[in-house]
Amino acid sequence: MDDTALWIVSLLASTVRLATPLVLAALAGFYSERAGVVDIGLEGKMLTGAFAAAATAAVTGSPWLGLAAAIAASLVLALVHGFACITHRGDQVVAGVAINTIAAGLTAVLSNAWFDLGGRTPSLDSGQRFLSLHFPLAETVRGVPLLGRLYGEVIGGQNVLVYLAALAVPATSWIAYRTRFGLRLRAVGENPAAVDTAGISVTWLRYRAVLITGALCGVAGAYLSTAQGAGFQENMTAGKGYLALAALILGKWRPYPTLAGCLLFAATDALQTRLQGVAMPVIGTVPVQIIEVLPYILTVLLLAGFVGKSIPPKAAGRAYVKDR
Amino acid sequence: MSVSTNTDGLPRWATLALLPAINLGAALVVSSLVILAIGQDPVSALAFMVKGAVGTGTGLSYTLYYATSLIFTGLAVAVANHTGLFNIGGEGQAYIGGLGTGLVCLALTGWPWYAVLPVAVLAGALFGAVWGLIPGYLQAYRGSHIVITTIMFNFLASALMVYLLGGPLLEHGQMAPESREFAESTFLPGVKEIAAALGYRTSTLPLNLSLVVALLCAVGVWFFIWHTRWGFQMRTVGANDAAARYAGINARTTIVVAMALSGALAGLVGINELQGVQHRVTLNFQAGMGFTGIAVALMGRGHPVGIVLSSLLFGALYQGGAELSFEYNEISPRLVVVIQGVVILFSGALEHMFRPALVRLLKPKAPAGAGQRA
After folding, report:
1. What topology does CATH give the domain A2-303?
2. Global pTM?
3. Which residue spans traverse the membrane (chain A) (predicted)?
4. Which residues of chain B have pLDDT under 70?
């Protein structure tokens, strides 16, 4: 019994840790896509953020400076995306592919040249990383069955960026549905002509959305290299940006359902490592790849309308032409 | 992304030669800045790259070998583009296509290579076509976004191959996740065999007969897209699918056929990589060639001649980049990925940036705003 409880607590704690970068990146995608700018460049911006954070933290010794560098680097790529898609009305998907490709190449080239560790940055010690925060009384209540450990290891005991991601969900929901900016942001993703007619700049709104996307991707990247990990490795995002995009689609471009999607994907990821080679009752040993591909299959089925229907913002993917 | 736009009156030579040249120039400037940032001399580095890519027989052989795979994936991206689809799944289609080719080579043990080749080509094309056809079907009949679906299919392909190479296809007593070696009779001959026949013994000349297959595919795509009813339908759907429907074209079938053809072309990468060089099914043998096909197709403006030329360029970049990283420890071979990304940015996403300026420059009498299009 106690073993099962321990197993559940460790699964939950690991789910929360794995969900954090997905939540940050998916919310990043939320702003951009709800404003009508498709962003498959989440992956590249995260990767760049991860590198900038680890490199800066390794050199300066401060994870906070690393976080700032990650946000700054990711913002630069977001501006490139905006420049190509909003100013020059370029193809948004192609721009995203370009950003992912540039990020994959540039982080590998720079980490290799600056640190000479075969595409890694130096390992960060505890002072250069975001460490777990210990909640008050965690040791005292540890003995309480299940709840004590839940408090100490799942709700508490995470690093500051996890809580930031958790706060970002209600904050995003509030901004999108309760503020004037949010109303306009959603409007510009559905019907930019109407927003334009109301005398509001479509361009400036979309740029702001893309910049928020950049900032959040930067935080997600910093989380990977300076909180969850202890340094940068080549291609360390490993498809998490695409997975975040899938969670956004699964959540039908709404904050709370997107959070649920991220938690679901993170849970399958956490389960997958725990079920490797484990024989289960009735079905026996399941190849881990089957669990691994569940998020992708779910996304395909959902987009195809076989399991519910996910409809993107109406104007997503299209550049706005003022003088038609 | 549109493949060609002739509504703004830009001369054909400028579209086909000048714009790609400007894009390449911009990519070179950016890569020079990156090399400078590393603290190296860009001119000597780039000169070394050129020498490494085409300066020696071995270098040239590698350049053409990389170019072979890129012709397949570049054509794949271009065929989908002509139909107005962005096939980002060339990577997965190449991977699964290679599985088809590999299974044929594993099965036809006693056969000579010239008998195996047509079967291997068919199997590679068929497997790749299936991996492209499903996203195409979902786009045409279920309204799924082709970009997201093909990304998901890349992950699915990767997981499937990890599973197959870790279990069912794994050679007994083998640690590395790869299949057993194909029978020697099935190996595609290449310049290595020619050199051996002439009395030279070499071990590293990967260029093989699949270059001929790739060039035949380029001719085939040219004929198909511009000289058949199906090709016309694809271009019409790509240009304006509403107009295509009014003209009585079945846009849905056209999309499915285009994606199947696109996947089939990408699926032939395994002919070069597996039957030609590795002689077994290996993990990640396609190694980014599917993604690079996007840059190749954009740079080649979707035309087979342009695609062959830009495949040569990117093949040279791959080979030159590899040589460069041997010479300069500080420069990672991934520099070619940066160049590739910048090319996609300039010739794809920012195609409207240089173009209006060129239109103004080359057509002084054009009325204001003529360079803009929706």
Report:
1. ABC transporter involved in vitamin B12 uptake, BtuC (1.10.3470)
2. 0.88
3. 6-30, 65-86, 93-115, 160-177
4. 1-7, 203, 363-374
